[in-house]
Amino acid sequence: MANDLDEVTGPINEQGRDINVISKQISVQVGTGSLIFEIALWAVLPLIGGLALLTGALPQTYGLALLVLGALPGLVFLFMKISALAYLRKLQQKIQADASQIDNYLEQRVVVLNNVVGLVAKAIDLDKDVMKSVAAYRSGHNADAERNQASQKIDGIFSRISLACEAYPDLKAQAVIADAMRQNSYLQKEVTAARTLYNDTVGMWNQDVFAWPTKQIVAARQGYTTRIPFTASAETKAAARSVFF
């Protein structure tokens, strides 16, 4: 039987294909099969024991044992679900902690940005609404989508500052701006590392909430959904496609 994906004779896309993150949360759901599975864990052995006692198919001792111990699989699964719920809640807290780390570095970039805005405001056109939305990071209340958007806006503003510094030698020569750009470069590396950690944790979450039976059943009952990974800004993607040499 041939490979489903045959790299030798299969169709080849000569132009390549860009990869994008799908910004969609998928709800975790379970069907009637999972419900039947849970009921079976509680009922099958006691039912067999009861029938054995009524029909005399098994010795009375065995029948009573099945009645008494028949709920044991259900109890074990119950404790497994309790453990799974504790694990998923702990993983949620880790996602929040990783996201908070990104926020910390982004807020530091906002501080750096505010320090140089006054020096470059006359040279470049800074959008006041953009600055307000970026400064909102100080409130500490940001959804995943808002965090990603604010990060993209910060990237865009620093790119414009860099272009302004190239166009205006007087700006580039100022020590404050030079120091700010060095700090920004360092913080951007930290943001990248924090994003990687965040995305790793999100990837773990997205896999675990669909791990049937225990975690998926718990996730569905709790109304959990998948999480959206942190994505690169439009400016970063455009820059990556540029010709550097």
Automatic annotation (TrEMBL):
The protein's predominant localisation is membrane
Membrane disposition? Single-pass membrane protein
| Keywords on record | Membrane, Transmembrane, Transmembrane helix
List the subcellular locations. Answer: Membrane
Q: Which residues cross the membrane?
A: 35-58, 64-88
Q: Which SUPFAM superfamilies match?
A: LemA-like
Q: Does the record's keyword annotation contain Membrane? A: yes
Superkingdom as given in the UniProt entry: Bacteria
Q: Which GO terms describe its cellular component?
A: membrane
Instruction: Give the InterPro entries listed for this entry.
Output: LemA-like_dom_sf, MamQ_LemA
Q: Does the keyword ATP-binding apply?
A: no
Similarity annotation: Belongs to the LemA family.
User: This protein is called what?
Assistant: LemA family protein
Q: Which species is this UniProt entry from?
A: Janthinobacterium lividum
Lineage, broadest ranks:
Bacteria, Pseudomonadati, Pseudomonadota, Betaproteobacteria, Burkholderiales
